[in-house]
User: What shape does this take?
Amino acid sequence: VPVPEASGERLRRQLAFIDEIDRLKRVLRRNVVSDRSRRENSAEHSWHLALMVLCLAEHAAEPVDLGRAMAMALVHDLVEIDAGDTFVHASYDEHEKLERESAAAERIFGLLPGDQALELRELWLDFERGQSPESKLVRMVDRLQPVLLHRATDGVVWQEHGVRRSQVERRVGEIEQDAPALWPLVQHILAEAVARGQLKDE
Amino acid sequence: VPVPEASGERLRRQLAFIDEIDRLKRVLRRNVVSDRSRRENSAEHSWHLALMVLCLAEHAAEPVDLGRAMAMALVHDLVEIDAGDTFVHASYDEHEKLERESAAAERIFGLLPGDQALELRELWLDFERGQSPESKLVRMVDRLQPVLLHRATDGVVWQEHGVRRSQVERRVGEIEQDAPALWPLVQHILAEAVARGQLKDE
Assistant: This one.
């Protein structure tokens, strides 16, 4: 259903983007929500991250622009609408993944008016590069959130996929530099999961 | 599973809040997601609103603090974890609803350290009061988002509940003042839905 002509091209493009991104609610991640009733989707995951940014920003190693970090958490997974979610502990072609996601960013952010398309694509790129204080914070919560959910669900997904502690440590390792105050917590959670047989240790 | 003592009381409270809010992913709204496969939950709805804030802020009648408005969109429905979602076109006791939601805000935001509990509860209260520029923007997108989803799904939920155009107009009426540029669009969508028999007109 097209938006009426009278609304103007700019608003028309904004609404096309808003309609399109609803599809992120159908992209499923590997982890489950806290009552284990179903897999988590990438839209609600992004909501959770944005709120974690708000609550945990004080633990970041560098000062961050909170508004920018929240916006980054909101858009960081939008490319999955075209490119799908890649399970972090699966083996995949890094180059091929990047190509797929770049094309997705081009198309999805390109629905917006030019200035906004540029701004949001830049936010996504910044997240991917992981160099700015905001991207370090968002990457940190993006790594921490599934660990917290695995803990809350007795590691059912870790067990199902036979995940090893070393795999998780490789994935979350950035936390040690980017939010040192949280690192003992992460280590504690992983040690506990190993002790309970939820995570393989070899 | 308690967080290790060494993490400190402040971090322990932040994580208790982050664990608890996962439950918003299980609060279901009346409207469906765009492929009609299931009802939308309040967490992914809040994500959608926060991104709409980012895209549509320029249409607000007054200038807004974008970071504050995004944060408000992220927390505005958290009280539903205890109080449930109230269908906007159902009849309910307004006073009783407010009491339930205030108690929920007390408990849920109260999981956080004192300063953060105060800050987020204040954001929620501001949303409820609807007086600040940020709350007018978030309320506007909160009213617009379901209308866009109803349009994208041929009004299946409007039809199912026999919703009347006058009910929707009462619900979205604030948009005329708070984002006048969007009002013709809303009117167009409602007229079209009536013409197609998706919304009752009497």
About this structure: Chain A touches chain B through 54 residues (CB under 8 Å). The CA atoms of residues 155 and 198 of chain A lie 5 Å apart. The longest strand of chain A covers residues 28-32.
